[in-house]
Amino acid sequence: MADFIVGAVEYLSKFIFFIIAVLVISPVLTWVERKQSAVMQDRIGANRAEILGLRMLGLFHALADSLKLFTKEYFVPKGADRLIFHLAPCISIFFAVMGFAVIPHADTLIISGQPVEMQIVNLNIGLLYFFAVLGMAVYGVVLGAWASNNNYALLGGLRASAQMISYEVSIGISLVGIILVYQSVDLMEITRAQGDLLFGFLPKWGIFLQPLAFFIFMAAGIAETKRIPFDAPEGESEIVGYFIEYSGMGFGMYFLTDFLETILIACLTVTFFLGGWQAPFIDGWILQTFSDSTFLGIFQLNNFILTIVQFLAFVFKVCLVIFMMMTIRWTLPRFRYDQIMNLGWKMLLPLSLFNIVVTAIIVYFIG
Amino acid sequence: MNVHDKYKPLTWWEKTYLPAIISGVLLTFGHFRRNMVNHIKKAIGMKPKVSGAVTFQYPEVRRPFWPRLRTLHRLVRREDGSPRCVGCMMCETVCPAHCIYIVAEERPENQIEKQPRIFDIDLGKCIFCGYCVEACPEDAIRMDTGIVEISAYTRNDMMIRRDQLLSLEPKKEYYTERPDLEGKPVL
């Protein structure tokens, strides 16, 4: 019986995290994007989709969007490579979803003495896995562009691959500092290491130990999502991008990939730099206030409450980072293509290398 | 001064784009904060000093028209319901878009000789310049109906006939008050 409950809780927790991350936040992000941009620009925003007179502040627009995308014709252009054309959006979204597997969303929960990892896959090479998934993300874009049999799409795909590969370098090198500081590539271990306090009051988060890496990671991460200000691959307002030939749900999947990557980058930013699921100052209070007696026969009360608080802290931090990314997206115009390349290769890459050298020297002498 | 002097090369710090990004984000976030506070105040029943958005929710709420805005034409009626128009063709003559077609007929009484039998305005051609209103010696045509949603599926449907023009009424409530003497709009 206990084994069954342990398994059930384990799967349920993973399931809930995945549902919240992928199926709840990503459609809601379309609403957030519309409403947040509207409030930033002194407007009201889309609020006309209604069901039985109920408007819910325009939340139904996400529903209307998906309905529209599902019922539109899925058009395959003449001369397109049909197999790859159909496969490319799936590849694109597949790797965006895969990335969520290694993100820890709470500390280990103890159920009747057995530890349950609050992570979909407990990989000890989580960070390398993340690099692999991120590296594969460009394939969906390039294959889709190439299979469309359209020169504009192909050029968009070229811009996308150039941009994504350039910024992957900066992302990878900026995270070497994190590996040096926390001495691990396991995301759970990295998050756990951020629980200590620095000088007694500052949480030992990545943003305080690696501030430069944080900025590099954020900038490169936003570039990886291919959204404004780094939307040269796509350029929906004037230059056409890699998914120009896609319609209906094919386009919808590329669209969803952008949002999923936004969430993924936000999750990773939180995991590496904002302490992941750590809820500093609250966790000790919870462990002291609530007894460690068991309830329902299997759960430890304080451990159980702490896990829920940690999960909520994680979601809250992710929402905060997404809000910041949305604010940047609605503030800045698009970078010119040469500016993107200059920023990537001449600014972020040397800075991240400098960050490694400084971090390595400090870690060598202190740690 | 050379024009190119304005475009100094960016310094290293500016080349990171950070100062521009930070000032921009602060501006947009300031707007977000101010508007959000006003939205929340409105939602919980407090009256904010200014609205959180400048939007007019159009079909339900109309933006008030300026008093001299020229909207769809109408023909003014006499007390007995007959058109005030005397068919003098002044408006048709002055119309720069040639969108007015008038055919006059004899009026039964002798004091006023003519009245229009046909008075068509092709709204597909009309440029809403208001010259017809200026030219009319009898003040028989006015542009104060407050109707601005003019659309049709065919070009023929864009023609508006005499009887329709005569049946239209002025819409005072769509318009604002006239501006006061200092020229300030009274909204």
Give a verbal description of the structure.
The complex is a heterodimer of chains A (367) and B (187). Chain A is mainly alpha-helical. Chain A has two domains: 1-71; 75-366, no CATH class. Helix content of chain A is 65%, strand content 4%. Chain A has twelve helices and six strands. Chain A has helices at 2-40, 60-71, 82-98, 126-147, 151-182, 187-193, 206-209, 211-224, 248-273, 282-289, 301-329, 337-366; strands at 109-111, 114-116, 197-198, 202-203, 294-295, 299-300. In chain A, a hairpin with a 3-residue loop joins strand 3 and strand 4 (202-203). In chain A, helix 8 runs antiparallel to helix 12 (337-366) and helix 9 (248-273) packs across helix 11. Chain A starts with a helix and ends with a helix. The mean pLDDT of chain A is 88. Chain B folds into two domains: 12-43; 74-174, 2-Layer Sandwich (Alpha-Beta Plaits), CATH 3.30.70. Chain B has five helices and five strands; from the N terminus they run ααβαββαββα. Chain B has a three-stranded antiparallel beta sheet. In chain B, strands 1-4 form a two-stranded antiparallel sheet. In chain B, strand 2 and strand 3 form a beta hairpin. Chains A and B meet through helix 1 and helix 12 of A and helix 2 of B.
Give the CATH topology of the largest domain in chain B.
Alpha-Beta Plaits
Give the fraction of residues assigned to helices of chain B.
10-25%
The total count of helices of chain B amounts to 5
Low-confidence stretches of chain A: none
Give the helix/strand layout:
The complex is a heterodimer of chains A (367) and B (187).
Chain A: H1 2-40, H2 60-71, H3 82-98, E1 109-111, E2 114-116, H4 126-147, H5 151-182, H6 187-193, E3 197-198, E4 202-203, H7 206-209, H8 211-224, H9 248-273, H10 282-289, E5 294-295, E6 299-300, H11 301-329, H12 337-366
Antiparallel strand pairs in A: 1-2, 3-4, 5-6
Helix pairs in contact in A: 1-9, 2-9, 3-4, 3-9, 4-5, 5-8, 5-12, 8-9, 8-12, 9-11, 10-11
Chain B: H1 12-15, H2 18-43, E1 74-75, H3 90-94, E2 100-106, E3 114-122, H4 131-135, E4 141-142, E5 159-160, H5 162-167
Antiparallel strand pairs in B: 1-4, 2-3, 3-5
